[in-house]
Structure formats: C-alpha cells, structure tokens
Amino acid sequence: MPGVTHEDLVELNVAGQVLGGLNSSRLDRILVRDEQTAVSVTSSLLPFQRVGLFLVTVDVKPGEDADAVSRRLDEIIADFIANGPTADEVQRVATQTVAQSFFNIEQVGGFNGKTVALANGAVLAGDPGFFRRNLLEYGAVTPEAVRAAANRWLSRPIYALRIDPGVRELYQEASATRRPPPDNSPPTAQPRDPMPPVGVIDDLDFPDVERARLSNGIEIVYARRSAIPVTLLAMDFDAGVAADPQGGFGTQRLMLSAMTAGANGRDAMQIAEEQERLGANITAFGSLDRSTVQLTALSANLGRSLDLLADIVLRPDFAPSEVERLREQQLALIAAEVTQPNGLAQRALPPIIYGENHPYGRPVSGLGTAASVSPLDRDALVRFHRTWLRPETARLFVVSDRPLAEVRRALESRFGAWRGAADVAVGRKDFSVAIPAPRPRIVLVNRPQSPQSVIYAGAVLPIQGSDDTLALNAANEVLGNNFLSRINTEIRERRGWSYGLSGQVQLRERQTPYVINAPVQADRTGDSIRVLMEQINAFNSTNGVTESEHVRTINGNIRQLPGAYETAGSILGALRTNELYDRSDTYWEDVAPRYRAMTAAQMDAAARAVIDPSRFVWVVVGDASVVHPQLQGLGLEVEVVQPAQ
After folding, report:
1. Is 439 exposed, middle or buried (CB count within 10 Å of its CB: 0-12, 13-18, 19+)?
2. Widest CA span of the chain, in angstroms?
3. At what angle do helices 568-580 and 587-597 cross, to 10 degrees?
4. Torsion angles phi and psi, residue 546, rounded to 5
5. Coil vs helix vs strand at 267
6. Cα–Cα dist 522/397, whole Å
7. Can you tell me whether residue 315 is helix, strand or coil?
C-alpha cells in the first residue's frame, strides 16, 4: 500500500472504512449480521511514510467453516473492487472523519492531538498543515475515485494469516544472545545548554457547573465548553453490572447491546447509517454501578441526533433475531474471556472477597457466564429495561458549546414526558448483603502450559466512593499505582520478573476493593508474592513515603490537572464521577490546594489505615505443576481449582 503522501491515500482510507471500518460496513452487514458466519470484522489502511498496510481481520463464529468464510471474504472484496462504494457510503465516511478530527485536535498532545498532527505533517509530508489539506480532500472524494484506487491496490497479491483455536503446540523459547561487554570508558563530554526550569503551572480552571431539571424530574448537570462545536451527553442510570439478577449475570450487557441494534422500527444498520450521516456516535455501556447511553454529536445536528438517542433509550425494539445474534456474540466473548489469564483472575476474585450474593460479587466485565446468558431472551431484556432504565433512575450530563437553556429545551421535547412503567417497581440494588469475613489464602487456578502467571490479589476496604480518598490514592501512587511505584520498581525494574504490575484502589459507589494485578514469569510466582507482601508490609511499618516520593507525587498530580481536563470528554467524565461519588461541583478546582497541604505522614496514615495484606486473597492463574511447589513456603493455605470452577 502507498504511504501518507500518496495521491490515493484518502481513497484507500475510504475503502477501508466502507469495507470494515464503519459500524454499517459491508463486511459487518454481510458476514456478522446477515449470514452470521463471523463474530467481528475490521478493515483499515495503516499508512507509514513510504508504504502502508491494508488490514482485514475476521473473527470466525465458532462452529463455522473458516475456509468458507475466507472464500466469502474474497468475494465481497472482489465485488467492491469491481463496483466501488455508493455515494452515500462515501459521504458517511467523510462526515465521520471530519467529526472525529474535531476531537483529535481538541487536545494538545495525545496520540492524535494538535502536536501530533503538526509533527506528522512536518516530518512525513514536509507540511505542518498537511492534516488540513488531507481533510479537505474528503469533501471532494468520489465513488469512482475510490473504486479506481481499490482496483489499483487491493487487486495485488495478499498475505493471509489464519490462527485456529486449540491447544498450543509446545515450543522452545529462543535463548538470549550474549551481549558484548559494556564499554565502561567515561563518555566524552558534549556541550549542551542547561535544562530549562519548570515554569509556574496555573491551577485548573474547571468549567462552571450548572443544573436544571426536565418536567419529569430528570436532573441535567451541564458544563459549557466552546473549544469545538460539539455536544457530549451521557444519560446515566443507577443500574450497572451490580443490577444483574442472581442467575441472570450478563443481562445488563446484552440489553445495552440490543438497545443500539434496533429502535422504533430502525434496524441496527439503519441506526448506524443515520449516526454516520449526522457525524454522531451513540454508545451504550455499563460499569459496576451505572448503565449509560452516551451521545457525541455535532452541535449543528444536535436535534436530529437527540431524536435518534430518544428512540434508542425510550423505544428499543429488542427484536428476537437481534437478541439471538447478540447473545451468540456475548457467548463468544465469554468463551474468549475464560481462555485468558486476566479474564479468569477477574472472574475468580470478586465472588471470593464480596460473596456470591453481593451486587459486586460477580465478573466485573459484565459478560456473565455461558449458563446465565444462554437462556436470556427478549422478555428478560424488556423486563430489565422497564425495571432499571427509567426516569426515576436517570441523570443527564452534558458538555456543549450551546447554552444550557437551548440544550434543556431540546431535551425536554424528547424526554420531558417520559414516565416509568406504572406496573413495574423501580429497581433497587441490595447492598445490605453481608460481606464475608476475610479468609486469606491462595486460590490457584490451574492453566496448564502457561508461560507466565497472573497474580490477582485483594480485599474489600472499609471505604466507599463518597469517602475522602485523596490522600489514600496519593499514597498508593507511591506504593502501587504508578510506573515508579515501589512494587513495580522492585519486581519489574530491579528483578525483571514482570513487564509491569500495579496495585489499585478500585473506587466503587459502595464498598471499594484494593486489587493487585501482577503478571509475572511462571518460575517466579511464589517469589513475587513474597516480595509483594514484603513491600506492602514495609510501607505500612517503617518505610513510608519519602521526601522525594512526596514531592514527586504532589507536583505531578497538581501539574497534570490542566491537561487531564482539556477535552469535552474528560470534563463529561469528571461530571459523572463527581455525582457517582457525591463530590462537590468544584471538586477538581479544590484538589490542587489540598495536595499542597498534604504531608507524607498523612499519606502514610491513609494507606496504613486500610491496605492490609494479611487480609488479601491471592488468586493465581498459572500452570499448577510449575506454580504449586513455589507456594508452599508462604504461610498461606493453597486451594487449587480448575477454570470451570
């Protein structure tokens, strides 16, 4: 494929999006939705300075003939090369590309921000303004130009890689090559200018937060941001993975998937196409505590985008055929998750530390289990929607360049008359379920032939989201939640047993856990647990936060604030977490002076009050024949289980 300055770049980008990049792409429509022989498909152009790659990937649906799917893929691509895209497809790609560019250049850095756009243009094309010229070309591209470019490039010979499921063949890892002895001669002094001093960083100026209500009582939490002409809206419902019924884990996830797959008579492809024409994006997702439907819209198209959002939220179809298709996809994701060490670990720990009947005692991915998802049908999704997604449980968060009064009028006309089902009680999660007393032990999940082990350890802390955790989180950056943290430095940098590990206060609305995630080389699993215990115990006794760690943590956290909240998306996220954790509207503006007043002793005290490794359950996913002998001298009971357990 050609590089970034080639005259066919835009046309090939459009080809990649039409084939497998858009939500309404041809490959997705044919292979995933209509013929249902694949679980997911993608295609895209990956351009470099001189050359590029055109990548097409297909995840074949379990039980389908991969050779037949490969032949069908060739047929679809051949048809595209012969006939090209439609004018509507080209227009949808152009609109989506321009809309996405607003968000890319909203931030200074990042992977696609202003700095990257200017630097890529200057280095790769000799023109810092290349990104602007590139965008203008999308407005002029034609279906015939895309067809011609596809014919020139996609008809060339390909490299096809096929990966089949099954037990991996044993292999011998390549031995390390011996390095030449280091040159210990002193380096030649080179003249250089002195490092510039760190300038004064202004405190964060967070946008003022305003509030309003719709006539049915739904609260609007609003912040104005005029940097780009877009509106971001999130409708949060007090539901989430924690609302899944016992025996019905995965219901919320499947319901959210089905909401965007058909609403008010539109099918999934029609919804996707309408979003693309508007330059909008509607997603439905869930965390442990909330179910969310989020809209990203060009403000010029806000009204029509809200019409589509209202259909998805208020009038989902839950067509049985779509529910069946999405259920099969979710079952495939479950099957994939339980083959991965991290997936097995994250499934094992929550029910152990919270108890199986607690709202948080379930797999955090929200996928559920094969046994719980297989029976789910349209009735189960309708029942969950009527119980949990209703005005009584909803709150709207908006960041927009349009004034609150205008936004409220637009929302009132679409959601103001909405009423919850009178014949169904409002859903309520039961957090009164008792959390079992800690029973410290090692639970070894046997995964034969694993070249490394995943250590996933933790305990429920005596705190919840509304508590003040600023000092605790600052202390934990020193201990576990930073690249320079004690545990990462000791196990990764000094000992070389892991590519990276962390310990996190995983904040929840209610009872919050502390969790260590440490993938380590298999023959050092036991040693890694021992070192983790030693590091945490030392931190909790005589080796607390040092002066240099204190200065680094406080300065870093203050100085990163303006960059952390430079985009509409980050501001929307802050509005949502402030509400979830019962924080004030000025929370993030108040953080900097609180950090400046924070002492190392306060950080030590916050961590030592709640992080206690003697309460931890250590889930280890690895090859029991290799790992089990290493665990015998750690002073903990070892319980060996199979992944299915």
Report:
1. exposed
2. 82
3. 80
4. -85, 170
5. strand
6. 46
7. coil
Three state DSSP letters for 221-238: EEEECCCCCEEEEEEEEC
The residue type found at 102 is F
Question: Who's near 625: CB < 8 A, 6+ residues apart?
Answer: 448
Round to whole Å and give the CA distance between 294 and 397: 9
Tell me the chain's radius of gyration from C-alpha atoms.
Answer: 27
Percent of the chain clearing pLDDT 70 (strictly above): 99
Cα(first)–Cα(last) distance of the chain, in Å? 48
Q: Is 122 left (phi over 0), alpha (psi -120 to 50) or beta?
A: alpha
| Residues contacting 413, CB < 8 A, separation 6+ | none
The tokens for 389 are: 């997604």
Which tokens hold the place of 486?
């004690």
Establish how many alpha carbons lie within 13 A of residue 255's alpha carbon, considering only the half-sphere containing its beta carbon: 30
| Pairing label, strands 452-464, 502-505 | unpaired
- Rounded Cα distance between 29 and 272, Å, is 11
Domain locations in the chain?
A: 9-153, 209-415, 441-641
Check whether domain 9-153 has CATH 3.30.830.10, yes or no:
yes
576: pLDDT confidence band, cut at 50, 70 and 90? very high
Residue 595 phi, psi dihedral angles, 5° rounding: -65, -45
In whole angstroms, what is the distance from residue 16 CA to residue 53 CA? 11
Tell me what pLDDT residue 645 has. 47
**Has domain 441-641 been given CATH number 1.10.600.10?**
no
**pLDDT band at 189; cut points 50, 70, 90:** confident
Give, to the nearest 10 degrees, the angle between helix 130-140 and helix 9-16. 60
Asked if pLDDT for residue 390 goes beyond 90, the answer is yes
Task: State how far the alpha carbon of 125 is from the alpha carbons of 112, 116, 118, 145, 577, in Å.
Answer: 16, 13, 10, 22, 41
* Gap between the Cα atoms of 583 and 202, Å rounded: 23
| Amino acid at site 553 | T
Q: Which two tokens stand for residue 262?
A: 């058909």
Pairing of strands 38-47, 52-60: antiparallel
pLDDT digits (tens, 9 = 90+) for 462-511: 999 999 999 999 999 999 999 999 999 999 999 999 999 999 999 999 99
Q: What are phi and psi of 620, to 5 degrees?
A: -125, 125
Q: Are 309 and 282 in contact (CB under 8 A)?
A: yes
CA 346, CA 171: separation in Å to the nearest integer? 28
Reduce the DSSP state of residue 530 to 3 states and report it: helix
The single-letter code of the amino acid at 45 is L
CATH superfamily for 209-415 is Metalloenzyme, LuxS/M16 peptidase-like (3.30.830.10)
| pLDDT for position 176 | 67
d(CA 396, CA 406): 15
| 441-641 and 9-153 share a CATH fold | yes
Q: Is pLDDT above 90 for 105?
A: no
Task: Read off the pTM.
Answer: 0.90
Per-residue confidence band for 644, with pLDDT thresholds at 50, 70 and 90:
low
pLDDT digits (tens, 9 = 90+) for 352-372: 999 999 999 998 999 999 999
Within 13 Å, how many C-alpha atoms sit on residue 264's CB side?
A: 10
